[in-house]
Amino acid sequence: MTRTMRAVEITEPGGPEVLKPVTRPIPEPGHGQVLIRLHWAGVNRPDVLQRGGNYSPPPGASDLPGLEGAGEVVATGAGVDWPLPGTQVCALLPGGGYAEYAVTAAAHCLPIPQGMALREAACLPETFFTVWTNVFQRGALQAGERFLVHGGSSGIGTTAIQLASAFGARVFTTAGSPEKCAACLALGAERAINYREEDFVEVLRNEGGANQILDMVGGDYLPRNVKALADEGRLVQIAFLQGPTVALNFAHVMMRRLTITGSTLRPQSDLAKARIAEALKTHVWPLLAAGRVAPVMDRDFPLAEAAAAHARMESSSHIGKIVLRVA
User: Which part of the chain is the Enoyl reductase (ER) domain (predicted)?
Assistant: First the structure.
């Protein structure tokens, strides 16, 4: 193995053009960590935020973007029983995914689901960790409940639709075009609402209100989400594409006994992420192996063309996951 690797770094805060190919030293795994030779890396909204200077890596993490990938373990630090060198895995990364090699906690690795290629497996960790912890652990979604996910054609949305449907919820979603709505219906949504033509609040209120809403839009969606919830409903916030600041009448939250919660994945402790990984292996990986749930793929780009991948994500024309071809 050579001492250096190809990577893509953020040269300064800005648009996609600030992503530039570079050569970096290969990182070394510490205690409880593994070094993965990546074949594929997922592209996610937090990468775009980091590129713009709005989402700093946690202490000790690589400054390179990239929060998930799939490849082969090539070295381990002390205290690692699994995965061992030679094992193919997909993994949640603290950063550093836009490179040929990345280091992460061994406990944040998961086996490649049976029958799945590395390209698809690279798209699992970031979205599946996020959806599982927010929708099922924090939001406590139950079978038979009415579940609304905004941005249904995104990586998070396509994952949430499939998992909520697989666990027996009634799934509603919003999307911005007939094509995207059709894709959401094909994944198991009961109703896909074109937000350019319909009011999701009216649709959900006519159904009795949503028991849970998963939102990554924020802004003026926050008070509208409150209106769309059923009494004792839960709003789970995971991002703010339209901003986190808004006027909200909390009297409605109190009178209707609503819950507003949310989380971001990256700042959570290694132990918290390891527990999410264990839950996914128990409850979700069998669904992936059985073909009941699968990542929805949009396009792939060579690592050196990460800027083009970001431009596509920011165009919002994609359906599902965008990945970088590393090896």
Answer: 14-324
Separation of first and last alpha carbons in the chain: 14
Q: 230: closest CA among 202, 209, 253?
A: 209
- 189, two tokens: 């949504």
The pLDDT tens digits for 52-82 are 999 999 999 999 999 999 999 999 999 999 9
Residue in this structure with the two tokens 């994500």, named with its chain if needed: 313
CATH number of the domain bearing residue 41: 3.90.180.10
Rounded CA separation 86/1 (Å)? 14
Other CB atoms closer than 10 Å to residue 143's CB: what's the count? 9
Q: Which tens digit of pLDDT belongs to each residue from 205-218?
A: 999 999 999 999 99
Does residue 246 contact residue 223 with C-beta atoms inside 8 Å? yes
Strands (E), 140-238: 146-149, 170-175, 191-194, 210-215, 229-237
Q: Please identify which residue in the block is written with the tokens 């965008």.
A: 322
The answer on 277 and 249 residing in a single domain is: no
φ, ψ of residue 248 to 5 degrees: the values are -140, 130
Domain that holds residue 178: 128-262
Mean pLDDT, residues 27-38 taken together: 98
| Other C-beta atoms lying within 10 Å of the C-beta of residue 153 | 28
Q: Residues 156, 131: contact at Cβ < 8 Å? A: yes
Residue 96 φ then ψ, to 5°: 90, 10
Q: Where is the domain boundary, 262, 279, 300?
A: 262
pLDDT confidence of residue 1 = 64
Cis before residue 83, ω within 30 degrees of 0? yes
Do 183 and 114 belong to one domain? Answer: no
> What stretches of the chain adopt beta strand conformation (E)?
4-10, 19-25, 33-43, 68-76, 88-92, 101-105, 109-111, 146-149, 170-175, 191-194, 210-215, 229-237, 259-262, 297-302, 321-325
State the Cα–Cα distance between residues 174 and 319, nearest whole angstrom.
Answer: 13
CA distance 173 to 62: 35
